[in-house]
Amino acid sequence: MESLTYTKVLNKTLAIYGEGGSLEAYHYISKHADHVEGNKAQLYNFQYSLAAASGLEDEALALFKEATIDHQFWYSYEYLIEDEDLDVLRKYDEFQKLVQLCKEREEAAKKSVKPDLNLIMPQDKETNSLFIALHGDQENREMAEGYWKSIVSKQYMLALPQSSQIEFSEAYNWEDVEQGTGELKNHIDTIMKTNQMNQENTLIGGFSAGAKVALHSLMTEEVKAKGFIFVAPWLPDLDEWEENLHILSENGLKGYVICGDKDEDCLESSEKLVAILKKHNIPHTFKLVKNLDHDYPDDFDQILREAVEFITSPL
């Protein structure tokens, strides 16, 4: 039986919304929101916005209040004043007061947010191997850890960077790829100096927009690595980058690309990236997963082991 995950719940909710409308989608996410691990602020956001879009004004307002008062979450002021789904709530003074509260929290968060990093060491704490894993948009390092942490058992130090580009509570993005690349380089430089490691043996992984930053950092040679593992890579600038991707071949990189055949957002860019890797004779594997949307495969731990073995094995 397929496991239910945070990402699957969000993807399924969006699919139901597109096919059956907001009310059906609201009932679905309300049923499953408390049974998955992920960004609770985002789960609340889906619930109150879908309730509002369905005309359930009292429920929507109560959920928004619960999120912002009980849990101290905040959401983008621009989103709250512009999203059409929330139009029915704007007549309520209480909603307007909570919007202003979110605005204050957003301003404070953006003034104080900094690039962050979590390091997980193998039990013996002695390793010369580094694996870096970048979260996707509207995610955070804790969410990424749940997927990539099995790499530590292969005697890798796992580095989990968190972008400084915050979108709402505990949700970060990589919208500015140059900024993301700079933060990633600084993290790696610090790790290398502190642990006396060889950066050229580093492996780098990323999900969705995290893969975009990882690829950009390799293409611009800001980061040196042995290879990359991308899951559902979101690469909107791939056409512009293509002429520079020969650098991956010149630097001897190997790649492993994973994507679901139902991923409407990233299948096309995954296939395009694979074609470029083939064109430049860059050793690679493309794992196309059946019936998978924009998510990690259920057997990702096993696939990750296979990907590492492929990249680290001699040609």
TrEMBL record:
Phospholipase/carboxylesterase/thioesterase domain span: 175-303
Keywords tagged on the record: Hydrolase
Cited Pfam families: ABhydrolase-like_N, Abhydrolase_2
Keyword Hydrolase listed: yes
Domain BCE-2095-like N-terminal span(s) in chain numbering: 5-110
GO molecular function: hydrolase activity
Signal sequence bounds: none
Keyword ATP-binding among record annotations: no
Descriptive protein name: Alpha/beta hydrolase
Native organism: Bacillus spongiae
